[in-house]
Amino acid sequence: MLSGRFRGSIKSYWSVGYGAKSLSSRDVLDQHETLSGCLSTLPKKAKVVICGGGVMGAAVAYHLARRGWGDKTILIEKERVGSGSRWHASGLVGAFKPSLAQVKLAQSSIRLLQDLEARGRPTGWKQCGSLLLARTRDRMTVYRRMKSQSVSWGIQCELVTPKRCQEIWPMLNVDDILGGLWIPGDGVGDPHLLCMSLMREAVENGVGVMEDCAVTSVLSKHDKVCGVETDHGAIECEYFVNCAGFWARQVGQLAKPQVKVPLLPCEHYYLHTKKIDNLDPMTPVVRDPDGYIYLRERDGCILAGGFEPVAKPVYEEEIGSALQRCVAEDWDHFHILLQELLKRVPSLNQAVLHKLCNGLEAFSPDCKWIVGEAPEKLHPATCEDKEEGTSKTKNKEKNLIVGAFECLNGLLMSLHDCDQCEILQMFNYHVAAGMKTVGISAAGGVAEATADEIIDGYTKYDMYELDINRFLGLHNNKRFLRDRVKEVPGVHYGLPYPFHEFETGRNLRLSPIYPTLREKGAVFGQVMGYERPTWFEPVEEEKVNPQEPRPFKIAYTKTFGKPHWFETVQREYWACREAVGLADYSSFTKIDIQSQGREVVDLLQYLCSNNVDVPIGSIIHTGMQNERGGYENDCSLARISENHYMMIAPTIQQTRCKVWLKRHLPRNGCVTLSDVTSMYTAICVMGPFTRNLLSELTDTDLTPSNFPFFTFKELDVGLANGIRAMNLTHTGELGYVLYIPNEFALHVYNRLMTVGEKYGITHVGYYASRSLRVEKFFAFWGQDLDTMTTPLECGRTWRVKFDKDIPFIGREALLRQREEGIRRQYVQLLLTDHDHEMDLWSWGGESIYRDGNYCGQTTTTSYGYTFKKQVCLGFVQNFDKEGNPQPVTNEYVLSGHYEIDIAGIRYAAKVNLHSPNLPTKYPDKERDVYQATRRLHEPEKFLGRHYQP
Ligand SMILES: Cc1cc2nc3c(=O)[nH]c(=O)nc-3n(C[C@H](O)[C@H](O)[C@H](O)COP(=O)(O)OP(=O)(O)OC[C@H]3O[C@@H](n4cnc5c(N)ncnc54)[C@H](O)[C@@H]3O)c2cc1C
To answer: Where is each GCVT N-terminal domain found (predicted)?
Structure first.
């Protein structure tokens, strides 16, 4: 129940005091500071047009101006600058974020706040520190992990006792508190003040600001943004930045082609008390995530809000203006937070309430910011060439890429040439939106990255996890968003257990064998909307009602120690090592790339760091590097015929790697690209008996002399044909990945299961595959590799065609690095004194110590069922006394004594530079010689002439 007095106070305030004098002018929706120097007419031309004069748009304008593009930039705001953020007043600013990229961006934002304040520009920045409270042991573990990560992230923090928590915040009730984390560098800011200060400085440095002007359309020509239409006329431009915050999704729809910015608003509540006597203005921020709440001091009052587990979504088109974004309060919905607030600060019961604010803020489906250049492409029917007044279909010869036809939200593309369709990019359309309720922490850093991307073409940090290209069309489906965003705000304060899964928006992308796998006990995780088995629960054969499908089960871990699925995954792991495991790999990105002549070979030679001009039937594992040598993509390419390759790339790359490819396709349309992800079901069979099994189902001779390791063949399997079979696995085990036309998938699966019975065939989920690949020291893009990591740093120098005089993107950078030496090295670390039953596990992101000094961080980790040890993959560096990274050599790596810090306890670790050979009952020459990381032997000698690294 609500506290009668508190609720009474609020009610009485609402009924009696609604028009009363407010405590802060910034709360008053109809008052605002004005920005002088705004434009009265819209110029005809600019280089960059920013849409939205909230804190994000202001920060982008500021950073572009700082880099000398001020007089080339126009910011357009449909109301008044800062109107969107006038009342967003919680103002919490914290450096800790869930990932390194987000931490770096937040730290850059804090530096900007400090810098502006130091120069007399008000931002509301107050470094009052923040205190995180723990009610549970798991929450304390999270703080211990954060404390251990803080070394690598450069955040000062301290674990504190409940008593110390109360000293820091005397009003707190700490009866149920186990401890906390004190972060002295955190603070508070004011988005409106920050926005106005950034805007003023931007205007002083040449940025033109047009208020009361709404963007109505964004136009493109020859694949690039070419202009913007507004209700005050049109403006030509080369770059467009969508900073429309709350309305970014709608503004995306104004573009031709439409740009998908998947976000949807939710209600967000906080309340203000009236003034509280003697409240110290430097009172720290308190976050009590187990109670979903936060509190801070503001203008002598308490401001308190929270992130309830189930939020209330709103449709953005129903909210026309900033004023309407402050919607009526819903006390019943706020109840859960109010209860917790009163429990944590009982004296609030005596406070007089000023008001409850219900502000709306937009969230993306994965609770991350949306940043980067949009991936959209154009359908000619929607693209009018304004200047020439013609449809672009008429200009097809000029700029079509024939044959690639994308439909169904980008999931299906036909293989045939299609003259109705074309792929045209919408280059130079940038997005900086989805800032959710941490916009001030984001603004400075995200804007700096946006300005860098526009001017330099790349950002200083790897940002793929925030990249707008992480989405597919399905993520922008409004019903999907409406369901999903209910869960999203709660993620802020939820316990960040490993392998978090959302519960909404599920059962969306399903492989043809999904119903069968579900019946067989699959427990699912979702990736790019795809349901992927994570492990298989044992199922009792008899169901009460055989007609009823088995319940849909979502994977969960909910511990930082030994997970409940340990034994299940162990069983699957051993099936892959000693019998046959069958896994559904359908979610992997599959793209056919082909041409009439040799053009596809030339293109791929330019895009790939490995040599792709290999015999037909070979499979090449290669990176696609950027100019800096980092991985834009890591893929397998099967040469299907002279001028036809099939590319297999990570699931999360389905949009992103296509954008990279399309960006480099020849303009004359001679190379075609078809996304066949949704056309093929991928079944991987792993284990020593897979050759025997598959041989029973096909007439093709599968012996190594006819079908060697790392080669491709089209097979008949069972009664089906046209199955693209690759002799490789992503886990280092002997086996095949079968890419099966969807209509044959169930048939092939059934045959494999029936014949496989005598070989002990077992369903295998993603977690077992992960354990296998970590133990085998296989790097994965998006987990170990990113746009900043080079092949030389991760033990793949031998996969770079340095010995061939063939230009490729990144070659110069890699040659330079080879000359100068690497400054970080990918290693495998086996924990030698860790008890997997009793100790907390490593889950990635742990600090690595060498001879007692911090030297790097883990990326992916797993329990290794053969080693019977925790296995960590990660990067080791060599810092000098000033903390600057120095060259790293094998000798340096091997001469150190290593420890991994797991939540404050350091475990000794043995370092490996090479993929280890795991002991096995069934040694296999092919498999054992293959090294995913670094070359030990001369594999060609063992693997035959077909073998290409
Ligand atoms: C209740 C609440 C509490 C919050 N608390 C915090 C906090 O504690 N810490 C924190 O860091 N953040 C907090 N935030 C979030 C933060 O305020 C926002 O993330 C940030 O203000 C968003 O800024 P923005 O510039 O992206 O979007 P907005 O402020 O929404 O600005 C977008 C602008 O685009 C304009 N626009 C839209 N469409 C068009 C068009 N067609 N043409 C021209 N202009 C257009 C709009 O008028 C608007 O001015 C909170 C937000 C809310 C709602």
So the answer is: 514-804
